[in-house]
Structures are given as C-alpha cells and as structure tokens.
Amino acid sequence: MEKFLKVVWTHTAKDQLRTIFNYYKEKSVQGANNIKSEILNITKAIRFSEQFQKDEIEPEYRRIIVKDYKIL
Asked: In which domain, by residue range, is 63 found?
C-alpha cells in the first residue's frame, strides 16, 4: 500500500489557487479547471519529503513547478 504525505494548504495558498483559477477562467473555464486539477493532483502525489528539488530562494523548502507556478 502506497503512503502519501499529508499536504496542508494555508489560507494564503488557497487564495492564490483561487486567484490562478479566476485568471484562467476569464479566458477558458476548461483551462481554469485543467490548471487547478494539475496543481491539486501533483500535490496529492507527494510520497516523501525529498521527492522534489530544494528551492533556490528558500532552500528549507522543496518546490514543484506546474506551468508558470511554483509550489513550495
């Protein structure tokens, strides 16, 4: 059985995801749904804390790049 880490979304992160969604929704609802799903799915796939590379600006965090967005 695969074990996944629990991802905790801060209020700021939720607001930023909502802002990203609303930005894309102006152009395409499907596009907005796609980027939101891609971001949520990659965070659900985190299996271990060292899975992604360290961020160069904040090296105490790992980063995931999805399109033009960096998730710490």
From this structure: 11-71
